[in-house]
Amino acid sequence: MLLSKLEIKGFKSFGDRMVIHFDKGITGVVGPNGCGKSNVVDAIRWVLGEQKSRMLRSDKMENVIFNGTKNRKPTNLAEVSLTFENTRNLLPTEYTHVTITRRYYRSGESEYLINGVTCRLKDITNLFMDTGINSNSYAIIELKMIDELLNDKNNSRRELFEEAAGISKFKTRKRESLKKLSDTDADLERVEDVLFEIEKNLKSLEKQAKQAEKYFQLKNTYKEISINLAKRSVAAFREDLLGLQAQITQKQDEQGGIQSRINLLEAGIEEAKASLLQKEKLLSSRQKTLNEQVNKIRQFESDKKIKNERLRFLEDRSQKLRESLDQDRKSNDRAGFSIRSLEQELESAEKRFREQEIEMEELKTIYEREKERVRQFQEEQKVKQERFAQAKEKVYQLAKEQEIKQIQLSTLKQELEKTTTADYQQEHHLQEFEDKAAELLDALQTKEDEVERLSHKQQQLERNIEEAEKVAQLIKDELVQLNRKLDAKQNEFNLTKSLVDNLEGFPEAIKFLKKNASWGKETPLLSDVLTTAENYRVVIENYLESYMNYYVVETREQALSAVNLLSDASRGKANFFILDEFQQYIPRPEQLFPNARPAASIVDYDPKYRRLIAFLLDNVYVVEGDFRDFPESEAHVFLAASGKIIRRPFSISGGSVGLFEGKRLGRAKNLEKLEETIKQLQKTISYTRNKLEDKTTEILKLRSQQVKPAIDAARQEMDQTRQAYIAIRTKKEQLAELLSSNANKREDIEQRVEELLDTLSTLEPELQEAREALLIDQEEAESWQEQVQALNEGLAQKSAAFNEANIRYHQGQNRVSSLEQEIDFKQKAFESSAERIQVAQQELSGLDQEIKHLLGTNEVKDEELFALYEEKEAIESGLTESEQSYYAARGAIDEQEKEVRLLQRQKEQLQTLLQEFQTAATDLNMRMHSLRERSQCGVRVGLRCTNGRRSRGGGSLS
User: Fold this and answer.
1) pTM higher than 0.90 for the full model?
2) What would the pLDDT profile of 186-205 be if each residue is shown by its tens digit?
3) Alpha-carbon span 580 to 527, nearest angstrom
4) How far, in Å, CA of 403 to CA of 507, rounded?
């Protein structure tokens, strides 16, 4: 199987469709950081079904869709296709080229395809199972997975080996199978629960059916009583209805009189309103005339006020312009004087500037010539200094070499003397080392023998401890098993006791009688008085199913007392076996059948219930086998031991065996057996714990006898002796070698001393000659240094003079430039102020003319304003007369409308009473009609019920 092609579109950074062909010879994808290499690996992992966005380096799955750029819109779909060549049929499919595709939309929908056909993710997982290729396999390894493998984090190394060995697919199938089994068990438990609930509800439904029957009987009685009551109610309703109709007629007459009075008043109001409308129009016209006169007066006053404000503004503006003209003229005179003074100052500054420029050029030439001369002297001084430094270095090296040779010569002489003195002492020490080594060798042999003896003793002791620990472990395992068995029996005992106490699975009547012991204390149920072996419980319980809820009482009085108790409390029915009634019962003799045994012989019970059990299981046999093994006899009842089939005379019953069948039989007996078993297990556990404690004590005693500390001490002494022996032997060998090498070393030292003496005799005259040459070079260098220093001082003086002249030159230049700029500024200010003076004079002339015009027009307008005020007073007197006439008419109309409203309220009160009487009459009619319908319906229903009881079809009344 070969990966041949990868197609990517809209996935992460791949906005356009990208096809990568993995042809022969391609072993990797390379590129700079950020080019999308990791996105290729993410695409392969994603198309194989990766569901964790964290493994794709994203916060959420939607982030794998191309999110767009500044120039491109984001896409709504991410799609990746992976193509394999299946030439070796490693994939379980007939196609030679297999392409898997995954699509993801922004809406959250996802699609998977195999060769263009829609499929499930599980189909893709099953396709690549056992091939080593999936989203989390180690065929796709990223950097952090290598660290996980090396560190074996989360047991990842085991997963790799299991995948390589082909075990992972079987583990996956095992998990799926176990999940299906658990789901099936849960479904079975649910089915059994439903069956249990249905069985429990049967009695409740039976009780409801009886209540329904009683309801129909009461309903017939109620129908007869209702008809008689309806007749009397109709007669009473008819009398009340006649009285209400008389009251309604009286109220309608009163309502007609009020309405006629209202109509007369409304006609008078309409005539008064027509007259009022004419007066209102006259008042409105006079008011309008007055408003127009007032507006005209206000307009005259407003115009006069505006002209006064304008006159005041023009006078203020004229005053300000005159003051501004005076200031501009004075400023103009000052600017002309300043310009003339600055021009004279500029002329003298330019003259001084030219003189400073000539002086600066001369000093600059002198400074440059002196600077060149100093540079030449400095170069010559540098050469002399270098020659002096070389001579000094040569003297230093020769003196250093002479000193080193003298030190080496002195050291060699001292070493030669030391070697000669030490040889005698080392020969004496060599003999002492040989004697000491022999003593240590004998002591070492003794220590080794002691260690070997103690080791044999320790091994025997460890074997004894190991055997005791094995026995103790067996006892512990036995104790654990016993504890588990005790816990299981204890849980079974508690569960059974809870079932017995709460009567789980029994009808409500049984539970009620169990809680009320007044009729019979500790009266057992049939399911509690008998029991049988585990393998026969299902078959016996299925056969006795109809009798399992029967109480077993001694006398008939006890049964009747319980029946009366249930009847008084309305708690259902119960059944009873009366032992006294079985005293005369004689069971039929047992018969022998092949592969069958009497059912009574496999049941355990108390002897006083023998006749009851014989009655219940008379002529009943249990067959070991299926239906084909049943004996050929139609006069007996045969039960299959599995509980699946029961054959009675003329009938067969059977089917599947439920999960909870066989759990009710012998609960009380089983409870006693469990209690005995628990006591026996507790005794066994106590005995086993004592044995474990004894064995633990024995182990502790054996461990206390260990000789390991003695072995360790002996070994430590042996190691110390061995180390001392090795040290002595090493020192002896080193001393012997040292004596041998000292002889050779003395010869080398003597030869080296002679060579050093020859070298020193040669170095002495060479060093003396170099020192003399150094003195000559030093004197010449110091002479040149003094000459260069003197030249530098003269150069510094010339440089200072040149710098001062240069500063004065630039100061003069800046002064000339400053004066030119100031003259230019003053000239512009002079021209600007002259221009402002001319503009202000023109504006002042216009303002004077406008002031004269406004003063002339104000005198004419005052006479017109006085005439308007006189006309306004005449209009106001006519308006007052119209208002008095209008409001008098309006008051009369209001009085009439008030009377109409009072009559309207009286009419509405009569209308309300009339509606109440009519509602009461309607209610009486409806009640009478309802009584008639119910009476007729009751008769019809009674007829249908009577007819329905004649057949089974009476249930149609529901």
Assistant:
1) no
2) 888 787 777 777 777 777 78
3) 19
4) 125
